[in-house]
Amino acid sequence: MPTDEAFAVEVDGVVKRFGRQVALDGVDLRVRRGEVYGLLGPNGAGKTTLIRCLVGLVRPDAGTVTVLGRRLPDLGVLSRVGYMTQAAALYPDLSVAENLRFFAAISGAPGHLDEVLRLVDLEERRGSIVSTLSGGMRTRVSLACALVHRPELLLLDEPTVGVDPQLRAQLWDGFRAMTADGTSIVVSSHVMDEAERCDRLGLIRFGRLLAEGTADELRRRAGSDRLEDAFLRLSGAEVPA
Amino acid sequence: MSGRRVLAITRRLLDQFRHDRRTLALLFVAPLLILTLFYFLLRGGGGRPAMGVVNEDQGPLGAAVTQQLLASGSVHATEMDASTAAARLRDGGLAGYVVLPAAFSASATQGAIRPEIHVEGTQPDQSGAVVQATGLAVSAAAGSLAAAAGVRAPTFSPGVTYLYGGPSLDTLDYFGGAFVGLVVFFLVFVVTCVSFLRERSQGTLERLMASPLRRSEIVVGYMLAFTILALLQGLEVLVFSLGVLRVHNAGNVLLIFGIVTLLALAAVNLGILLSTFARTEFQAVQFIPIVIVPQVLLGGVILPVSSEPGWLQAISNVLPLTYAVDGLRDVMLKGADLGWASVRLDAAVVAAFCVVALAGATATLRRQVA
To answer: Containing domain of residue B130, as a range?
Structure first.
């Protein structure tokens, strides 16, 4: 699976406007192979737009996006990318296994159903119809669908919303195991506990990448003990004393 | 029961309609559109069936009957010769014609007359109108001639020959073919449109767009699935109409099935294409009064396209249902086969519509959601 490109994601000078509103304002970003890169930022900062740029759902007005060595737009490279949307995008009238098989098939890869079901702890519910599952379970099925074709790059848009802390820890163990195999992960979040687990973090605000580095580096740069304060300070907000 | 709480519900619903301009427009525009179509269909066009009068009689009775028919308010009669009449009956220009034979006046004096009525036969009410108008004209003309001559009016027994079908053909036989097509078209359209819309609203379309799937692969995949369903449905509808309801069929069942399949394909592609223009299932259902009902009215399902005013016929002539209905009727009532140019044209137009809608559906499916 590993190839010789050093970067899983290369974003250069990407600008995206929706009407008069600027969603991305000149973003440069590198995600290394086998790295977990966390995108942090408040709601409406441009996290989702940036992730959607990486799967070709948003075409930048300026700048270039290169994913796994392929300059977008490139349909073929999408079979090596897994994308989990913010809201669980599933077929509610199909079973868990049927959803998984479908998403594996459209990626043109064999589905690793047992493996991903174990990861999201839904082995017992493989035959359940999705509409009968709880919100948290649906989130996990949605994640499983993004993983089922063993992507080399995994894009997760706030993946653990509605997932309890115990399962969240379990999922992150799974992510770690995947990066050990060379998978790269880009994850957007505003959960600080999750940010701590990323190899590197990028702070996004007003469509700009304001700061980048490991959690420790960001804390040091902001002169703050807590990542949350560092995040607020570096993004230019007032930090309560 | 609290008036305030009830009013809160009412108020909220009215507010929702205020925000949904399209539903509001539909609520007030669609009835006018549909009623206007009815107006032009029933009052605007030449609603009277066209008939020919072939007067080969040299005597006074032939001329008198001809005069009566030309003045008739229930048919639109024109005088012509026998070969023209036969040709126009065959090409659908006439609902029927009457031949007043050479010895018509002479036989009247002998007490019995027998005009020959030829009807097209596929439309029972039109055939009936021709026979009835002829009967009225003959009895009026013969009666007044006999009264003037002071003799008894001759007995009158017309011979009616049917180009297609026969006297046993009823209204269901006439509508059967059209309804088979309509039922399949309508249901397939609605089901496709709503399920494609669901793909959008539940967010899975975005997921598909972030996969290596091509847009054309999505559209063709949908098409195949709904075509399989439509084939089964078409099969059931045909077996039921022909086997249980005993709708008249003079043609090849496979050819009927073929036309129904083409129409179903057209409905699938139209459904996908139009789902782009709806945001909710509610809005998709609204396509029924603006897409389906006008096709039913203008497609010749209820009233023949030829009875519409010219400008409405122009609209009818671009609707796929018009051609499918025409093809189905030709096959089932007239026993038409692929040797008929009209059947080939009908099939070709429906097929062409499928291709256009398929291309349109693929084009409107944007990869970039933003």
So the answer is: 50-162
